[in-house]
Design brief:
By secondary structure, this protein is of the alpha/beta class. It is built from 10 helices and 12 strands.
Length: 296
């Protein structure tokens, strides 16, 4: 409700031109009827909900991956790269990620002749994961895909690690903060994370090098979330430039729809009237020895 009210205030009282990087599938989904009705551009929402992508909504443009894309990437990595077959899922209940997580997982595993050995979850605000943890462990998975964020994720990972039961963890990018790798350094578990954006290595892409240099020059710490914002800002700047002096919402949306194979520091994004997901490329990284590194 708060995001819905804030969106109305921004559009009707603050008279903003567009909404940029609104956060969270639950909140954004609640505002969706209003966003569609007003036609306000919503650019780079930080939310993996498929409902923001398929079918494409005329005034919403995404470069962050959907649940489906991130799930597919994780399962491909776990099954084809790591050789794991017994995979479970831990998700939140009663919100967007409940069905958006397990349905793509079922499909991705089914395509490989496999199925989830368990799917358990807790409420988003839950502080105790013991019930779900015990059920997951009873299924004896080789890997657990975790689609929760924040304290719930850390609670599950730490409590599982305390049992010393072998497993591989596979997380979504929103689950980790700048200190995540340090926080799990002592656990001695393989933890992989899917991302919509490259690993923070200066030599990976020119846009990454630029972001790291500018962030450090401002005495800030580079992070995955910061890189996402930087790339999104660079993209919307290109749209503004191409739209030119006749900057109306209508022209802005038309320009976005014409942005085909636009190069943002080595990252390619394409949009059209029938495609508002700019890219579906995923990057898999790993928490190892207190650092985030490319997955091995």
């Amino acid at each position: 409700q708060k995001m819905h009210d804030n969106t109305i205030e921004l559009v009707e009282k603050k008279k903003v031109f567009a909404l940029f990087q609104n956060f969270g599938s639950v909140g954004i989904t609640a505002t969706l009827p209003y966003v569609k009705k007003t036609g306000i551009p919503l650019v780079c929402p930080i939310a993996p909900a498929d409902s923001l992508r398929y079918p494409p909504i005329p005034n919403i443009f995404n470069i962050k991956n959907s649940f489906k894309t991130e799930i597919d990437a994780l399962i491909q990595f776990l099954v084809e790269k790591k050789g794991l077959k017994k995979i479970a899922l831990f998700r939140t209940e009663a919100d967007a990620s409940a069905s958006f997580a397990w349905r793509p997982a079922d499909l991705a595993l089914s395509a490989r002749g496999l199925k989830l050995v368990a799917k358990e979850g807790v409420e988003r605000t839950a502080k105790n994961v013991d019930g779900a943890l015990n059920k997951l462990m009873a299924s004896k998975p080789e890997a657990v895909i975790v689609t929760t964020v924040g304290a719930v994720t850390m609670e599950l990972v730490r409590k599982w690690a305390a049992t010393k039961t072998p497993v591989v963890f596979a997380l979504f990018s929103p689950a980790i903060g700048n200190n995540f790798a340090v926080d799990v350094k002592d656990l001695n578990y393989e933890i992989f994370i899917s991302q919509s954006f490259p690993f923070l290595e200066p030599n990976s892409f020119p846009i990454v090098k630029e972001y790291i240099e500018e962030t450090k020059a401002a005495n800030l710490v580079p992070g995955a979330g910061g890189l996402e914002g930087y790339v999104c800002a660079a993209l919307i700047t290109e749209v503004f430039k191409k739209t030119g002096v006749e900057l109306t919402r209508e022209n802005f949306l038309k320009t976005f729809d014409s942005m085909h194979e636009v190069d943002i520091g080595g990252l390619k994004y394409s949009f059209s009237p029938t495609q508002h997901q700019g890219s579906e490329k995923s990057f898999i990284i790993q928490a190892k020895n207190g650092n985030l590194v490319p997955a091995q």
